[in-house]
Amino acid sequence: MSTPFRSGAFRLSPSDYRALTDTARQNPEAYWQTQGTRLEWVNAPSSAQDTGNGWFADGTLNASVNCLDRHLETRGDQTALIWRAEEADHVVRLTYRDLHARVCQMANVLRAHGISRGDRVAIHLPTVLEGVIGMLACARLGAIHVVLFGGFSPEAIADRLADSGTALVITANVGRRGAKRIPFKTTMDSALSLRPETLFVRSVLVVSVTDEPVPMQAGRDEMLTPLLEKAEASCPAETMASTDPLFLLYTSGSTGKPKGIVHGTGGYLTWASYTHELVFDHQPGDVFWCTADIGWITGHSYVVYGPLSNGGTILLFEGMPSHPGPGRWWEVIQSHKVTTFYTSPTAIRALMREGNELPRQYDLTSLRVLGTVGEPISQEAWSWFDDVIGGGRCAFVDTWWQTESGGIMISPVPGAVKEKPASATLPLPGVHPVLLDDKGQVLDGATEGVLCLDGSWPGRALTIWNDDTLFQTTYLRPYPGHYFTGDGARRDEDGYYWITGRVDDVINVSGHRIGSAEIEDALAAEHAIVESAAIGIPHDLKGQGIVVYAVARDPSHPELEMLAVRAITAKVGRYAAPEKVYIVPDLPKTRSGKNVRRLMRKIACGETDGLGDLSTLADPEIVDVLIRIVQG
Ligand code: WTA
């Protein structure tokens, strides 16, 4: 099944795209050198390669200058950012000139608090202007931003503040989620009091989202708005090496410890700019709405760095899709004439449930490009989004990538690559995916295997903060000579990729990566539980849901399930709450003591026929016991 090309004036034709792909393959250095010129450098790089510790090694630049200053002459009065509050009548529009001034003021406040190049600044905010402004202000000073997702628990925040050695935190009194208030400041206070001996936080700057008062610790906490108002609206930008870190972003993998993925400056920004223009067919006048929170990589690359480096107009929406009613997003698209709408399959699944009539009440004809990211999308959700929201007129980009890749890797290019519903289609020019079998042999043609990437690309993460060995063992060693993505994929006879999901122990809940080991570590800290295994099973709305099998110290304890859920939400966050906790006498293990997750997954999914060869288990009888418990 394939859709015809959509009409419309897209930037690239199929032959342009083929020419780019050929040049990138034949002469990668020249190709990336040219792509590097999309940025404004202080010293242009003399080479365009990965030196092993980053791209464009001898180039120097500043990321905030690339997102702001260089647009001032050409588009200083163009809207850079539209911020739409919860209330429909509250909209803030900032031109490039306004945003530049606000970023300079923030940078001056940070500088007055002792922040300079290389320092880490944590940003823990709801969707308010200060998030984007704070990121760019850090970039201006050469400080490294560490954006923390609003859903993290105090424990998870404390771990990340300690690991990154953060010196200053920007947070909010509260966040607004519909009628609810999310206690940002008190969550941060709890995090800061957890293991103070491991922390270096000197200052906490607090944005007032509402006028609710919050406790302030004298000497450490200050309200941010009065400081910003007094600050100067100009601030020199630090000249950074291309390979200097621009930010750390924590993500989950197969160890319990969160990994601080480090992205560099020149390579990352080139990738964000290149992919934003190519994949979203960026054109003057576009209004680009990426619904991701800035706490995730999608928010970094496609709320902030991609569109702003390309001089685009971004929309930030403080509210939720479902409040005050489920038509909210469609109203936002109509009101602000959004042209490019980038969201997650999880959100689409939820909105689909509201039916077709609701979106049809809105004028969505401004839309040109629709995109999804974060998880595989079903054909049904793809077709609904394409038809009911896109009116069958829009280009549809199902974009595959990950925190570590910095930006989009496999995706259709509007007008140039024909979509197939639910396929991420083809690699972008300069990206070289390969599929491998279990033994690391490269598979050719139509096949299925482990998805790896060959060669480097400018957006590739530099390392893991404080742990380069983990970077090597996670990504480079599993399949020597190839970069291991953690995903599996199928390639069809047209060379199109269909991502099948993680092949490691990472669970994808509503597009959020959660390591099985993170959950198991949280449970290991709970005295009542001796041992546990967390697995992902299909979930209608979330993509995957978490199921936990736990062995209790005292199985007669009356509240084991609740204790387990509490231990997980306290250590990780509410977004990691399991669907189900099964208290079991033992876990199925091989004779060498390895948990057999495949079996636990099948049992949790009710697939109890054909469980395969059980003779390798230390205790095959445990299987029937688990089946009985799961089937209640
Ligand atoms: C999954 C998000 C299928 C994948 C940008 C990847 C996808 C992980 C897609 C990265 C897609 C992302 N189709 N699966 N289009 N995009 N994934 O680091 O498993 O939060 O490895 O980055 O999400 O998640 P991360």
Automatic annotation (TrEMBL):
<dbReference type="Pfam" id="PF13193">
    <property type="entry name" value="AMP-binding_C"/>
</dbReference>
<dbReference type="InterPro" id="IPR025110">
    <property type="entry name" value="AMP-bd_C"/>
</dbReference>
<dbReference type="InterPro" id="IPR045851">
    <property type="entry name" value="AMP-bd_C_sf"/>
</dbReference>
<keyword id="KW-0067">ATP-binding</keyword>
<keyword id="KW-0007">Acetylation</keyword>
<feature type="domain" description="AMP-dependent synthetase/ligase">
    <location>
        <begin position="69"/>
        <end position="456"/>
    </location>
</feature>
<dbReference type="Pfam" id="PF16177">
    <property type="entry name" value="ACAS_N"/>
</dbReference>
<keyword id="KW-0547">Nucleotide-binding</keyword>
<dbReference type="Pfam" id="PF00501">
    <property type="entry name" value="AMP-binding"/>
</dbReference>
<dbReference type="InterPro" id="IPR042099">
    <property type="entry name" value="ANL_N_sf"/>
</dbReference>
<dbReference type="InterPro" id="IPR000873">
    <property type="entry name" value="AMP-dep_synth/lig_dom"/>
</dbReference>
<protein>
    <recommendedName>
        <fullName>Acetate--CoA ligase</fullName>
        <ecNumber>6.2.1.1</ecNumber>
    </recommendedName>
</protein>
<dbReference type="InterPro" id="IPR011904">
    <property type="entry name" value="Ac_CoA_lig"/>
</dbReference>
<dbReference type="InterPro" id="IPR032387">
    <property type="entry name" value="ACAS_N"/>
</dbReference>
<dbReference type="InterPro" id="IPR020845">
    <property type="entry name" value="AMP-binding_CS"/>
</dbReference>
<comment type="similarity">
    <text>Belongs to the ATP-dependent AMP-binding enzyme family.</text>
</comment>
<feature type="domain" description="AMP-binding enzyme C-terminal">
    <location>
        <begin position="518"/>
        <end position="594"/>
    </location>
</feature>
<keyword id="KW-0436">Ligase</keyword>
<feature type="domain" description="Acetyl-coenzyme A synthetase N-terminal">
    <location>
        <begin position="17"/>
        <end position="67"/>
    </location>
</feature>
